[in-house]
Write a structure and sequence with these properties.
Alpha-Beta Plaits; about 45% helix; single chain; Arc Repressor Mutant, subunit A; four-stranded antiparallel beta sheet
Length: about 240
């Protein structure tokens, strides 16, 4: 019984730790979306998607509302979306997306992580060609959904690939078609659980398990940084 209690407590602490890092990051995206297009999700598609993504991560409504309110306060004025690039252990290429109100802090933190991992930051734009940006929609497959009809409908909106695994569907298209794909999904009455822009390696590279262990240590540190929204690599 003691071990079971310790396990449950450890699992709960791990969830709390993840939420304490995830919610502020989601909040920044909501704040930027509200600042850009207004506080009403019905007329602001970017905000609507940001809220849906936050709900998918179990972010409380109070946190979401607070993030929207922050968009019209003084503290929101300095939040910017910025990207950084670098080389990590064993030559892995890394693309980092940030939302920061202090780019000097962001650069200093990331530079420290790269350097301590045996890597280095490189000038922005150096690795852009190694990553292809895609629109990604994720939703659950239910009996009400006609997947053939949905695939045909999404193809008209720019769908490139649709995969279904363990009852979950992933629709991928060019990043330029993000708006048309999300709008089409709404028209097809698809309850999108998560919608995002992701980067995929154009030339994936294989690493050994031992090399990946070292690479993942660096990636964990990058993802833990308060300004980092997403990290991508060319690891296959």
């Amino acid at each position: 019984m003691g071990r079971a209690f310790e396990y449950r407590r450890a699992a709960k602490e791990k969830r709390w730790d993840k939420m304490s890092k995830t919610f502020p990051k989601l909040g920044k995206i909501i704040t930027m979306a509200a600042k850009e297009g207004g506080p009403d999700p019905d007329s602001n598609a970017k905000l609507r998607i940001a809220i849906a993504n936050a709900k998918a991560e179990s972010m409380p409504k109070d946190n979401i509302d607070a993030a929207i309110k922050r968009a019209f306060g003084r503290e929101a004025s300095d939040i910017k979306e910025v990207n950084y690039e670098g080389k990590g252990p064993h030559g892995v290429m890394v693309f980092v997306e940030c939302a920061s109100d202090n780019t000097n802090r962001s650069v200093a933190n990331l530079k420290t992580i790269f350097n301590k991992s045996g890597g280095e930051m490189v000038p922005t734009g150096s690795l852009e060609f190694l990553f292809e940006r895609k629109a990604v929609l994720e939703f659950e497959v239910t009996e009400k959904l006609d997947m053939e009809e949905i695939e045909l409908g999404l193809m008209d909106a720019g769908l490139e690939e649709l995969t279904v695994e363990e009852g979950k569907a992933t629709a991928i298209g060019d990043f330029k078609d993000f708006g048309t794909l999300t709008k089409c999904a709404e028209e097809l009455h698809i309850e999108v659980k998560k919608a995002s822009l992701k980067r995929f390696a154009t030339i994936p590279r294989d690493f050994t398990d031992e090399q990946m262990d070292e690479i993942e240590v660096m990636l964990d540190k990058l993802e833990d940084d308060e300004d980092v929204q997403a990290v991508y690599t060319n690891a296959g």
